[in-house]
Amino acid sequence: IGIEPNFSLYELINYEEQKAEQALNELEIFNAINNYSEQPILDYFEGTIDNIPIFNKKEVNRKELKADLLKYKWLIEWKELYIIVLKITDISLSSKSDKDKIEELLLWMSKDFIYSHVAIVFSIFLFSSRRQKNMVKFKLTDSKEKRHLSLKNMTWDIYYMTTFFRKWRSKSKDTEYIFASNDKTIKEILSISINLAKATDWSLLKKYLTLNEYRHVEKLRLFMMENLDRKFKSSIWSEEYINELIKTLELKLLAD
Predict the structure, then answer these.
(1) Residue range 37-42: average pLDDT?
(2) Torsion of CA 188, 194, 197, 203, to 10 degrees
(3) Per-residue pLDDT reduced to its tens digit, 142-176
(4) For the range 87-90, what are the long-range contacts, defined as Cβ-Cβ under 8 Å and sequence gap of 24 or more?
(5) Greatest Cα-to-Cα distance within the chain, rounded to the nearest angstrom
(6) Smallest Cα–Cα separation from 81: which of 5, 161, 145?
(7) Are 124 and 209 in contact (CB under 8 A)?
(8) DSSP letters for the chain
(9) Taking 70 as the threshold, does the pLDDT of residue 111 lie above it?
């Protein structure tokens, strides 16, 4: 079993350079435990010994690792998911009905942005009678720093689910991936996302949505399948276009 610590390190840093040293400290502890003999740990949990012998930290090139952790301004796909989170949050604050909210979001993805399977499933439940508490923790009354942190945290949740989803879709027959979380919403959204990907349509959603909600998202699904008028596939799509989306949405959500 291989444990991947890098995503946790990136989330700890959270695009704040000053947190890199803390992340390296955590990595040293993780490596020491991960490479430690299993028997003393098992003996401790079974109660046959009272203390775990001190383990030696594995020396790492902190300067080199720090440079690697800070090398990229954005992880692959994180930036796009951050924009989707900004849009979901912006729409969630409007006075529109849930029906209009999910329609606005999915049409926006289809015409003006890109699709994210996991984010679509998340939004279908967010803007439905099955919405769970704290799916969006963003509050306009919070400080600017707390609002920004809420947006980042929500992006990390969707990023983790998306990364696992992609690994699941591309894994070989002799490989399995495990995603551990005590977050009920994350587990349910990820499970439904995977089951939907196994199916040929969205009829699985009938188990969770009201009939009217299901019919509406099915109508939107058919539109998305047929829509060819997409900025993503046009000359408009560029780094400048993406950055402008971030600027516009952040001005609305992070205004002082």
Answers:
(1) 78
(2) -30
(3) 999 999 999 999 999 999 999 889 888 887 777 77
(4) 87/113, 87/249, 88/119, 88/122, 88/123, 88/126, 88/136, 88/154, 89/136, 89/138, 89/151, 89/154, 89/253, 90/249, 90/252, 90/253
(5) 67
(6) 161
(7) yes
(8) -----HHHHHHHHTT-GGGHHHHHHHHHHHHHHHTS-HHHHHHHHHTS-SSPPP-PPPP--HHHHHHHHTS-SS-TTHHHHHHHHHHHHHHHTSSS-HHHHHHHHHHHHHHHS---HHHHHHHHHHTSTTPPTTS----TTS-HHHHHHHHHHHHHHHHHHHHHHHHHHH--TT---------HHHHHHHHHHHHHHHSSSSGGGGGTS-HHHHHHHHHHHHHHHH----GGGSTT-SHHHHHHHHHHHHHHHS--
(9) yes
Amino acid at 85: V
Q: Which two tokens stand for residue 120?
A: 């679509």
- pLDDT at position 246 over 80: yes
Work out the burial of residue 2: count CB atoms within 10 Å of its CB; fewer than 13 is exposed, 13-18 middle, 19 or more buried.
exposed
Alpha-carbon span 150 to 167, nearest angstrom: 26
Residue 240 pLDDT > 60: yes
Q: Which pTM value belongs to this model?
A: 0.79
Instruction: Report the distance separating Cα 11 and Cα 37, nearest Å.
Output: 28
